Write the structure tokens for this entry.
Amino acid sequence: MNDKKHTILVVDDNPNNLRVLCDLLEKQGYRTRPEISGQGALDNVSKINPDLILLDIRMPDIDGYQVCENLKRNNKVSDIPVIFISAASEMSDIMRGFDVGGVDYITKPFEAKIVLLRVKNHLNLYATKRELIEANSALKDVQENLEETVSRKTWALSQSQKRLRELSCHIQRVREEEKRNIAKEVHDELGATLTALNFDIHWLQCGLTDAPSDIRDKVDDMSDLVKKAADSCRRIVTELRPSILDDLGLVAALDWQADDFAKRNEIPCKFTSNVDEIDIASDQAIVIFRIFQEALTNIVKHAKACNVDVIFLKTDRGVSLQVVDDGVGISNSLQLSVGDNDNLVSFDSKRESSIDPTIMIGTYGIRGMFERALSVGGTLNVESYSGSAGTRVVLFIPLEREAVRNV
């Protein structure tokens, strides 16, 4: 820090005191600007722009206290440190000096070393204060720029996520439509062909009653193969697009799926619903049905469950599907959820776990369930707690315009 760059405004109505102080300070390399009156100091302080003010108190036109008060009311010079230097040595005088904004108080007669030391200290403090203000201002600018950058990047990321999600939803819709078309083709073309073959084989069987046994056995084998092919055809069509979903509606399709799951896997699956029919958008219906299918698939693959409870509820807010099993659950307590207003995935690990939730969300089954829920503005929760058996999957989808009918 270079003291020679500092300018000090010295205010005293006594020319001798003014000269002594200015000589003392100039010998130390300071630039001085003397003023013989308080009003003169107020008039010229903005032009001089000093680094420090030495101010006498008892002056005829306007005393030092008033000068200091006026300085502190002027935002342009209010932060310039003021050191009072006066013969008034009463404690009340000194306290008033600090009350009106002075940073120090030197009594006359003064020691030159004391004056120089205090001047130097307060100049250093003032310089440090200015540096801090400038640093804070620069930091504020950096912070504002950083916030703007983060905000811009966050917005860009959210738009990218939105576009990816829209693309995912579009792909799902196209996939479902393609499945519907393939199922229709398989049913209409292959199903009709197999039915015709079955009629022809039956005609052969009726006409070959007197034929050798090996021929009749061959025809019977052909009949069995056609029946197996027809069963496979029906199964493929059902997996691609269950006709019951289009013919009888969502509730009936869920009930049928639960019953089919129980028969195929010999695991009791109880389905409960507070409505028998519900008018719902086709994309929402297929999302609910596919998530239900995936939840049942996960139970078969991982849960080792003995019982499954399925509850479908219609409320004023929307529809919910809850699938609960009594299987082994997840080895460590974990809660996964997706949805809410920000459409972001959140994780809540109930205790330290060796399982990384992001790995679980990364599996295609669970990720697909989450993506499907988001595609129709729904929320999905997957919960499993160590110490208690089973896993709970809860899907909620808000409905705006639907008609519900109890039969």
User: Anything to note?
Assistant: The first helix runs from residue 15 to 27. Residues 10 and 21 are 8 Å apart (CA to CA). Confidence is low (pLDDT under 50) at residues 340-362, 401-407. Residues 3-110 form a domain with the Rossmann fold fold (CATH 3.40.50.2300).
